[in-house]
Amino acid sequence: MLKKLIINNFAIINKLQIDFHAGMTALTGETGAGKSIIIDALGLLVGSRSSIDFIRTGQEQLNVQGLFEVKSSSPIFAILDEYGISHEDNQIIIKREINRKGRNVCRINNELVKTNVLRQVGRFLVEIHGQNQQQELLNEDNHINILDRFADDKFQADLAKYQIMFNEYLEKRSRLRTIQKNSQNLVQRIDMLKFQIEEIDSAKVIAGEDDKLEDEKNQLSNFEKISSSLQESYRGLSENNIGVVDALGNVRDQLEDIMDYDKSYKELYDSINGAYYQLQDNAATISDQLENLDFDENRLDNIQKRLITLDGLKKKYGPTLNEVIEFGKNAHHELSEIDIDDNTEKKLEKELIDLQNKLISLGKELSKQRHKTATALEKSINHQLKDLYMPNAKFGVSFESSADESLSANGIDQIRFDLKTNVGEDFKPLVKVASGGELSRVILAFEAIIAEKMNVETIVFDEIDTGVSGRVAQAIGDKIYKVSQFLQVLCITHLPQVAAMSDRQFEIEKETVKDKTETKVSLLNDLQRIEAISLMLAGTKVTDLTRKHAQELLELAQGEQKRLD
Q1: Edge-to-edge, what's the strand order for the sheet holding 104-108?
Q2: Which residue, among 36, 39, 40, has the nearest Cα to 50 in the 3D structure?
Q3: Do residues 510 and 532 lie in contact, with contact meaning Cβ atoms separated by under 8 Å?
Q4: pTM score over 0.70
Q5: pLDDT, tens digit, for every residue of 380-437?
Q6: What is the DSSP string of 328-355?
Q7: Which CATH fold topology does 2-130+421-564 show?
Q8: Could you say which DSSP state residue 380 is in?
Q9: 421 near 392, Cβ under 8 Å?
Q10: Domain positions in the chain
């Protein structure tokens, strides 16, 4: 569960630290005070998309930190082990920092991680439900995924097997269509690749070869100048008795005779002696180079021809020989992918038919399992709807099988959630008949069913009670409290009945500090809760009678909690 949340420079939040506990926590306050901003910050911690627009005006960066206490059986620890992230005491610390340059830094237990790793961990930490979930429920394409969440482990394994097979089917079908539609283009492409490969392979290109040949060409092209310069250099150093080496040797001998008379003479001798031997070495090196110097007119001609060949390849396939070599490798790879024999098309067609038959067979098995899941889900949802004061409502799941040629990633089923809200009416698509309040209750019914088997630690309800009031509001408060017996629940609400059912209540307010708006969060004591719920009941003006009603509402809520416990 979430133990601590620290937020800095996020929207209208300057600095905020909130300590959370197990059970049900209500976040209340005026619209725009920052309740949803707190949930958005929590969303960042579990991998939601970042934006520099979140950064507080006048600041360069925001940062959010969260301390989570996780059950030892959580799948999170396997993920942490996979990425080499240390953990102990079943605690996880997540930090996320975003600056105005777009830099996004994520850390888990002080280890830098990518956002996708944060999402993998986050999906087992927090699940946020609000307006997005209403949109998900209003999109019929999502209904099959929602239904599948309630299926057992065998179904999940079969679905994963089906999807692997389906992806293979799509790849083969795509390849077959490419072959069928572009056979002529493929032939031309194959011919081009073969020509390019032959041209590059026959040249036997070696990386860096052109630079070495250029150096050799420069030597051969300037043979006379190099030879003349080396000869003059050697004569200057060693020939006759006027060579620099002999002259320096005479100086060295003179200094050797007097070096014992003064320290400075000894230093001069050592310096001249070193230079003497260095020049001797240089003279020997020049002599060796003169002996090895050789002019081969044919070699120069061959080098020039080879450089012309290499330059031609570089103009065609890349500005450097390394790129020419890489081009050749890529051409080999591409040719191996598309170079097909006459039987490839027929082979693919047969493989596709076999795969399609297997997919249909497995899809039918998945459909049978889905029907069982749907029956159980209908029963459970309808039971929950009665608790939520929709006694005449009936929830249903309708099936329609896809045509064989319309296999989908989820099988052969097309799923739609239906609802009838009154006796005597027919089932109609949920998206067409449910009001906002009814959708809120249907979502809550879903959550109540899966609360016990969810792998998350914390669930957030962001104004899920919109559009309801009266006894329905009380029923929603009861249902959310029931969920909190299995999971930590954070609930943003404007309903006094729901707030009263919470174990703890935070009041979120806006205040102006030095001409800037800031969000302030306070944990309410018993008297403060009476005042806050009075304001939720009365609107603007709180009276003694309102306070009395608020106190009564809190006392009734305590009774409800005991009954539900």
Answers
A1: 13-19, 2-10, 61-69, 91-99, 104-108, 111-113
A2: 40
A3: no
A4: no
A5: 888 888 888 888 889 999 998 765 557 888 999 999 999 888 888 888 888 787 666 6
A6: HHHHHHHHHHH---TTHHHHHHHHHHHH
A7: Rossmann fold (3.40.50)
A8: H
A9: yes
A10: 2-130+421-564, 204-337
